[in-house]
Amino acid sequence: MRFLKIGLWLVVIACCYSCKKYLDIVPDNIATLEQAFQLRATAKKYLFTCYSWLPKLASPADNHTFIASREIATPYPGSQSGLPDAILQLGYDYQNVVNPGANLWDGLNNAVPVFQAIRSCNIFLENIDKVPDIASYEKKQWIAEVKVLKAYYHFQLLRMYGPIPVIRKNLPVSADVEAVKLKREPVDSAVNYIAALIDESINDLPLIIANQREELGRITRPIALAIRAYDRMLGASPLFNGNSDYAQFKNNDGEALVRTDIDNEKWAVAVAACKEAIAVCKQAGFRLHYFNKPFDLNAIGDTTKKCLDIRTALTEEWNPEVIWAFTNANTSDLQRQAAPRNDVYSYTISLLAANLNACEIFYTKNGVPIEEDLQWDYANRYTIIKTIPPSMRSILKPNYTTSAFNMDREYRFYADLAFDGSSYFMIQRPAEDNLLYINTMWGSSSAPSLSRYSFTGYWPKKLVSWKTSGSGNSYTPDPYIWPAFRLSALYLMYAEALNEAEGPSAAAYEYIDSVRARAGLKGVVESWANYSRNAAKPATKEGLRSIIQQETMIEFIFEGENYWNMRRWKRLDLMNRPITGWDVLQNTPDAFYRLKTIYKPNNTYRDYLSPIREYDLFVNPNLVQNPLW
Questions:
Q1: Which InterPro entries would you find in this protein's record (predicted)?
Q2: What CATH number should be reported for the domain holding residue 209?
């Protein structure tokens, strides 16, 4: 496995997250700041320290968006899962101002202290010129990498809290007490600062990593431009562009922190940022991923191949779609949580359940929403039970009974979900086609046992590598690293920005359709014309907006990305989807396929942003709290 060698240093400094002195994050034999930058070798270690603050997106215990998006749910309290209460609570609206969960502002409750990360970057930038034995070209690259990291850390805070203090330079130790009491800057100021840092860095970054064996994961030009695209999209989105809910969101001196009038030029800027990022990614060789069958794998059919195209876009390490992967954690624990027990191995934790209500977002096999499809019985989707025909054996168990909800859906539904009667492609299955079928009825191999089961009847199969293996009570995940940025995200953001700036266009259709093609679907215009009750939907800005948002939600379901998308779009309807599932403690289809509502959220626009801890407001009275908290 190829991996970034800075991981060795991440092990050494992992304990630094709770520390407050920067000297705790340089080698033990470096006694002073001056010594840390005396030589190229020690300065490089400090460079890797700046990387060490990247979030552990692969870890369900450290990435709150898995649970808080409500695409994935788990019982609360979920002691069997091993997830901390601070993370579990966010799936059930237990956020608070006294001790916020996933507190990036302070680095508390399973979150990285992002302001400390920014401080580390500033220390590096302020001291790198002291290093005598470093070539000019290398120093420029290191500076560019750290500026981009600094931009990304600001971006993390911006999308979670909105207006933030922008930390351009570290204050000196001798700074006056009042000088450290920074106020929040308007969103536009932070968005522009992030973009400016990246603009300063582009020319000094490599297009690709030459030494892939040792340096994959370090900042490149495509990574930097992808961050800028995300930043510009956030600044242009309804949350921060024309949000009348925030009319009174002001600093204590009356300075407005979010513009309440819509500035369409922001979408034009986002179009340019996405277009440039895509062009440079293509120049670097990035492309949408399709599964390449290993020579030693049994023959697979077209349907299985299509499902693996989708599934391995996430689980195949360093595939050509992955612009940036975080090497600071792997997905072993995540896969143990997401994989159901089956007839090959009987031991997994299996407590991450896919929310049935969230799974309504998947299209029908015709590539349109289930409520729009002329050929799909939406009204009776929960009440009709069907027998699976043998022709569907690649995705569903032949002659088995299942809900109509599971029938005639798009390939991503079957690639991303495991459920009763669904196929499960895995390397170890002792059969010609490597398929087994999941049985979740009471008393079967994947049924409720020892409180370790999906309480909805669905698992996020998307998160589990097909190369995972096991037998009996043993389970060995294939520990891929997490792809933080994928090219498909840039494609869909570009289509979104084009539509918002100019309305429907051939270019917008082209980029949506390329993502749909990987999923085995026809283009939006053709699909809606032939199968939708609203055939003209792709021809209007509002209609295409809905299509792009649904396409994005499907493509990135279970990855945590939609936690942020729902908020920047101001989609309370998505944030308030109830957690639902089947009556999983039953052993007959008629009893099992009864819809149960497990939890009904009640989010308001307060929940678009996370609260700042009350203590921080007390210490720094120049800070104002986010609306309604």
A1: SusD-like_N, SusD_RagB_dom, TPR-like_helical_dom_sf
A2: 1.25.40.390
